[in-house]
Amino acid sequence: MNPVSNLKTSLLAGAFLLLTSGAASARYAAIVIDADSGRIVHEVESTQRWYPASLTKVMTIYMTFAAIEAGQLHLRDTLSVSAHAARQPTSKLGLRQGQAISVENAIMAVTTRSANDAAVVLAERLGGSESRFAAMMTQQARSMGMYNSSFQNASGLPDEGQISSARDLALLSAALIRDFPQYYRYFSATEFAYNGRVLPNTNKILKTYPDADGLKTGFTCGSGYNLIASARRDGHRLIGVLLGAHSSAERFQQMANLLDLGFEKSQLGAYGMPVDQLRDANFTPPPFQLSSNRCAGSAAQMGADSSSGAADPIRIKPGKSTRLAENRPVKTAEAKNRAAGGQWAVMLGDHGRKIDADVNLKQARYALGPAAKSGQPHIVRVKTKGRMLWRTEWMGLNSNQAKDFCKKIRSKGQSCTLLPG
């Protein structure tokens, strides 16, 4: 090889190292958008390419909804399970070859249990084969402006060619809610009854974050722990995407912080550009998030550095106006000051299920009318007499507001207890 060729090779190798090191150092990717306007509220590395894992299934279900609306498929249609679908690895519903499953049950299995076998059943029905359906998914992504996305399967199982970004997944989620509001409820279901079993939704954001009503979790060693979540508060909907958490608990906690930050910034009118206008020429490969621990073997198979992926925990600063500090003892003088300055609360009730607490909160908003703009509604997990319950509270009130709240709520036949600061 001549000196010029050697120089070119060295330059290309150096450029590749810069690109891959930049990708490997990407700690996480995140974005929050206003669902109605499509404007960005907050974002971090949102155009960085990432392995979508089971967030891929949002596109699978989007295309299923589109087929239903076009009359190509019906909720009560029955689908036959192929050998390929039955062979899918966990997570799965446990479908057997030759078994029949309805379209609606397949949808529910995907949205609540992230079932790979059910996703493939839908894909084969719509595309003839999973590979052809994946090509259809990529084509659909292109038509929606998801310029960083390419799909190789319907489930999100590991594949070097299956990539997306936080920005693209936010676009997709907004489109799903906008285009198919009548079917979005499948992503809000807290449980799935199938063959005599009641299976809980694996998306814990529905139980841990007030006003959250969907969407989807995802995990592979390459992607880390991913989450798309949508929350609606006072008629205002945000969509958040978080990619690359190092544990399931981290993704739910940091998504809560991400949504809190989003609601605070949106209340201030701090909007950025429309998400569909966000473009970036950074096409560096996706990082391999968990290659430093139990996923090191998978990292080697995917060509990633098995020593990479070690990083500090994600620390997204939560919004100040929407989440309250944990309860702590206060001195008598401080308690008096808080009571005078707007730190009263009212307790609306305890509930065995989070969905019942959500309903209680909505009923309270209806009873309060314009007064609901004061204070901060909150749902917290409490332990009472050995039972874990969901408690609905309204905090940040002064004494007069708290008394007026309870008066209005009780007039509608609902429970209300004053909690002085």
UniProtKB/TrEMBL annotation:
Region Disordered, annotated ranges: 299-327
Peptidase S11 D-alanyl-D-alanine carboxypeptidase A N-terminal domain mapped to chain residues: 29-246
Pfam family, one: Peptidase_S11
InterPro entries the UniProt entry points to: Beta-lactam/transpept-like (IPR012338), Peptidase_S11 (IPR018044), Peptidase_S11_N (IPR001967)
Tagged with keyword ATP-binding: no
Gene3D superfamilies, sorted: DD-peptidase/beta-lactamase superfamily
Annotated signal peptide: 1-26
Keyword Heme: no
Keyword annotations from UniProtKB, A to Z: Carboxypeptidase, Cell shape, Cell wall biogenesis/degradation, Hydrolase, Peptidoglycan synthesis, Protease, Signal
GO terms, molecular function: carboxypeptidase activity
Family that this chain belongs to: Belongs to the peptidase S11 family.
PANTHER family attached to this UniProt entry: D-ALANYL-D-ALANINE CARBOXYPEPTIDASE, TRAFFICKING PROTEIN PARTICLE COMPLEX SUBUNIT 12
Stated name of the protein: D-alanyl-D-alanine carboxypeptidase
Organism: Methylomonas subterranea
